[in-house]
C-alpha cells in the first residue's frame, strides 16, 4: 500500500475507464480483466471517491451496469458518466433534433429526445448498424442541412473484444466528416467538457482526481 | 461550332468522365444525361481522339461498357481507363496480394491476382458491401501488417444516383486511414499517374488534351 499512498498523495477521487480497463466485451457480454473486480472493491473501501467514465455507446448505462454487476463489479448506474446522456443535454440546450445512427442497445437513452424532422446527426458505436444503407441515410440528412451538425459519441479508432480488434465510432465519424466536408463535435473522451462533467458529479477539481 | 473551335485550339484529344457526366446510375442501370449520347457521337465524328476516364469501381469495364452501349453510347472496352486494371498492374509490380473490399461487379477484374495470405487491402466503391463486418475484416488485415498498405480506387466523397447522393469509396478510405493511422494510395482520379496512363493510351501529351 506504500506505493499507492505515494502516487495518490493529494488525490481525493479516481475516474475509472470501463471498456478495455475493467472488462473486455465479447461473446456472452465479455470477461473481467484480471484483478479489476478486486481493484474496484479496494478503491471503494478506501477514502477515495470513485466514478466510472466511459465512452461506451453501444449500451445504455442501465444495460452496461447490469452487465458489470453480473461480472462481479460493485457499480451502480448513478456512478457512471457516459456520452449518450451528455449528448442528450447538448441536444436539449441547442434545440437539436437528431437523426440517430446508434446501436439499438443505447436507443433508450434518447427516448425523451425529439427526432422528428432532424437538424443534426448523432453517431455512436453502432456495430453492425454501420451498414452502407444506414451510413448513407446519415450522410443524406447531413448533406441537405445548411449547416450540417454531426455529434459523435467518442472518436475511438478501435476497441478490443475477446474475438479481436473492432472498428470504433471514430472511423465512421471520419467517413461522414470527409463526405460532408465538416468537423464533428465529439461528446465523450477526450473532450475536456466530458471529464469536467464527471469531476463535477464527484464534487472534485481536476488536480484532486487521478 | 465556332465556340467549340476556339476552345479546342491546339487540342488533339478529349478525356471524358463517365458517371455523372455521361449518365447517372440508378435503378435499372441508370439514365443518360441529356445531350451526352449526341455529344459523344459528335466528338467521335470530329478529328479529336476520344478516351473515357472513369473512377467507376463497382463494375468491370466490360459491364460498364455493356450498360453504356445499351443506353445508346458509342463506346468500346478498349477506350476506357478505369482504376481496377490500373491497380492490378501496381499489385503485380510490387508483389502485393490484396484483401479485396470491392463490389462483386468488379471482382472479375482481379481474377488473375493472388489474394492468398494478403499483405495489403484494396478498397473500391463496394456499395452495400461496405457492411461493418466487411470493413472490420479489412481493418483487421491492415492492422496486423507491419507496414499497412491500403490502395483505394478513387477517393470520391459521394456520387449522384437517380435516387439521390450516395457515399463513395473516399469516405470508407478515410475510415480505414483513421483507424490504422495510415494514408491510402489512391489509384484513379485525381492521381496524376492515372491521367498520364490515359494520355499514354491516347498517344498524347497533357497540353494536347482537354
UniProtKB/TrEMBL annotation, chains A, B:
This is Phospholysine phosphohistidine inorganic pyrophosphate phosphatase. Transmembrane segments: none annotated. It is found in: Cytoplasm; Nucleus. One of its GO terms (cellular component) is nucleus. One of its GO terms (molecular function) is metal ion binding. It catalyses: diphosphate + H2O = 2 phosphate + H(+). It is an enzyme of class 3 (hydrolase). Its EC number is 3.6.1.1. NCBIfam families: HAD-SF-IIA-hyp3. It comes from Rhinolophus ferrumequinum (Greater horseshoe bat). Phosphatase that hydrolyzes imidodiphosphate, 3-phosphohistidine and 6-phospholysine. Has broad substrate specificity and can also hydrolyze inorganic diphosphate, but with lower efficiency. SUPFAM superfamilies: HAD-like. The keyword Cell wall biogenesis/degradation does not apply. Belongs to the HAD-like hydrolase superfamily.
Amino acid at each position: 500500500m506504500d506505493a499507492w499512498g505515494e502516487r495518490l498523495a493529494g488525490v481525493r477521487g479516481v475516474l475509472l475507464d470501463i471498456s478495455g480497463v475493467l472488462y473486455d466485451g465479447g461473446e456472452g457480454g465479455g470477461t473481467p480483466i484480471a484483478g479489476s473486480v478486486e481493484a474496484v472493491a479496494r478503491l471503494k473501501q478506501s477514502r477515495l471517491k470513485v466514478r466510472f467514465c466511459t465512452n461506451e455507446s453501444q449500451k445504455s448505462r442501465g444495460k452496461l451496469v447490469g452487465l458489470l454487476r453480473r461480472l462481479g463489479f460493485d457499480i451502480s448506474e448513478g456512478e457512471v458518466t457516459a456520452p449518450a446522456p451528455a449528448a442528450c443535454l447538448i441536444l436539449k440546450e441547442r434545440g437539436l433534433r437528431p437523426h440517430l445512427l446508434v446501436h439499438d442497445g443505447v436507443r433508450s437513452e434518447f427516448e425523451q429526445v425529439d427526432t422528428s424532422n432532424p437538424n443534426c446527426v448523432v453517431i455512436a458505436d453502432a456495430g453492425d448498424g454501420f451498414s452502407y444503407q444506414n451510413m448513407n441515410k446519415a450522410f443524406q440528412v447531413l448533406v441537405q442541412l445548411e449547416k450540417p451538425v454531426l455529434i459523435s459519441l467518442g472518436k475511438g479508432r478501435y476497441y478490443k473484444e475477446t474475438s479481436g480488434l473492432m472498428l470504433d465510432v471514430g472511423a465512421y465519424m471520419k467517413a461522414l466528416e470527409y463526405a460532408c466536408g465538416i468537423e464533428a463535435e465529439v461528446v465523450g473522451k477526450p473532450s475536456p467538457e466530458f471529464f469536467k462533467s464527471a469531476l463535477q458529479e464527484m464534487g472534485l477539481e481536476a488536480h484532486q482526481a487521478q
